[in-house]
Amino acid sequence: MAKLKPEDLERIAQKMKKLINLREGEARARVIVHMGTCGIAAGARAVMTAFMEEVEKKDLKDVILTASSCAGFCSREPMATIELVNEPAVKYVDLTPEKAKEIIEKHVIGGNIVKEYALAAGSERVL
Amino acid sequence: MQRLHALICTCTNCISNGALKIKNALEAEIVKNSLENDILVVQTGASGLCVKGPILTVQPEGIFYQYLKEKDIPNLVQEHFLKGRPVKSLMYVSEVEKIPIPKINDIPFFKDQRLIALRNRGVIDPESIDEYIANDGYKALVKALTKMSPEEVIKEIDASGLRGRGGAGFPTGKKWQICRAQVLKRKSSDPSASAYVICNADEGDPGAFMDRSIVEADPHSIIEGMSIGAYAMGATEGYIYLRIEYPLAIERMKKALKQAKEYGLLGENILDTGFNFEIKIFEGAGAFVCGEETSLIHSIESKVPEPTQKPPFPAESGLWGFPTNINNVETWANVAMIINWSAVWFSKIGTETSRGTKVFSLAGNVNNAGLVEVPMGITLREIIYDIGAGIPNNKKLKAVQTGGPSGGFIPARLLHLPVDYERLKEAGAIMGSGGMVVMDEDTCIVDIAKFFLHFTSDESCGKCSTCREGAATLIEILDNISNGEGKEDDLAFLEELCLAVKDASMCGLGQTLPNPVLSTLRHFRDEYIDHIKHKKCPAGVCKALVRYSINRDKCTGCTLCARECPAKAISGTVKSPHQIDLHKCTRCGICVKVCKVGAAYSE
Taking every annotated instance into account, which residue ranges of this chain make up the domain 4Fe-4S ferredoxin-type (chain B) (predicted)? Predict the structure, then answer.
């Protein structure tokens, strides 16, 4: 990778924003598993594996599966955030591999939030 | 120039759902209504919601129609394009509006939080520098390096009112100013003289995990903050002192440093501006005293990690004798935000003397344990009852402990106190690095003070006799009190000894280790007196002070307790009242648990 010049940052930011915000591009959904030490201790690895297996099994080419850090609500880990295009993000709590499979089936594919496992919709207040 | 743009998606999916027919119908209807000069029909690519196709977006209003059919089009054009009344029945309804699940900001845990240091938590992939850049990452570094002089950077940090988040709360801008002055002094005689910036990530307070979470969630925010600091102070090398018990944080920081180096954001001639800066990780072996500045420096120098007398302060003579500036993880994580958003913005958050936000790890007897970032000035009640959702099992709150083993206990009656460096200090506690342990009515104050003292006593490096012997003696006295052997003059002696340890110990560890005892003596003196005078432990924790008995009137003589007692301390014959031999009783409480008629009890 070549060394960056100040103007390169904006280019990277624009490229990544497209990916992260699910606009344009191929992706229709983003599944974020919260993998901090607390999440991993509560079983986030098994949840991540379940999401991976399900995405592969269902051959979902337009779903981005990614990891992020602790969402702060450590007592309700493992947690995941599901973002669908043009929808507010939905945070799920107290996940298990079985719940992860159900969320892929019903929410990511079917577009219906699994209300029993959902904590809330939207993003946290930043700044 | 058209007044409306009708964007129809003509991806494969939407075409198979009839998008082209809709497009033709739209165009025909527009011509019929003589709107061809007002409205432009545009074909677009996949919008992402094509399962709901054919779909049409009308700009600039951004109105989104879905599942369109040819028969809908005349009405749509008439109503929306001609009369300006969007057709609700064809509009897209958000899934969230259909299924009423709460919005995140309606959830008390998230509602009162305000994220600055944790701005990227749970949002970006911490192992992707590109995602950090997408969220304004390294923008502040570019701004500092290309548009600001080092003095201007320091002025901005100073004006923001940012204070050290590691515990002591020293103004960060002042600290940087002192270090820069030393660097300039050195360089005037020796142009090759080095200077260091260090990130203190040796988080050791029991129950605290703020720094770990920040490093795990957003390692680049630390790198960016340190780079800005290094530029401002004239340092060319940095260390992150990260404890080895945090393997995930170390792994993510290593990856982040590698990525930053590949992008040329660390190394030589950063961003083509002539600024050089390198960062190394130093893995600390987990000694609590290494969180103290001089001990930390000795540890990196491979010397015995013991504190040395200040002055000289690290700014004058720090790592390998060079000017050195040490800030805590959370302090560094705030720096880029202040440069990006200005000191004025930052200083509007918080209280008069404590600006910005503070990250707390909320732990102990609280329903929502977790990591919270709140504006300074928020009350303890809001943190514990709104964000933390109160105490589990309907128990009463007894005290909240802030600042780890160096901190103090705040009683429930002072919950209205705002989180602010000065106000917490007035109450006998400290802001500390952000540990917040909530304790319910079942907590014994003597026992918990002893717990923290055991920790500091174990972690004392032993250099100062007041700290080494003082802590051991304090524990001895507290042990006596909880064993029912406390004497009336113990409290006065405890106080005197605490003050001696505070005054005569060299570093922060010794100077603050009496705080748990001092603050409990101040706020919970009655509970000490209960232990000493009345030989009672109100919380029922101190075993020596708990007595188990059997109520003769209630006991049916079922023999269950006698059979279950592991110490064989209960005697009695069938169908007649049993009794406990207090000399044999180990105070395990099994008799109370197994008794079916409530005859066995403790007092």
Answer: 546-575, 576-603
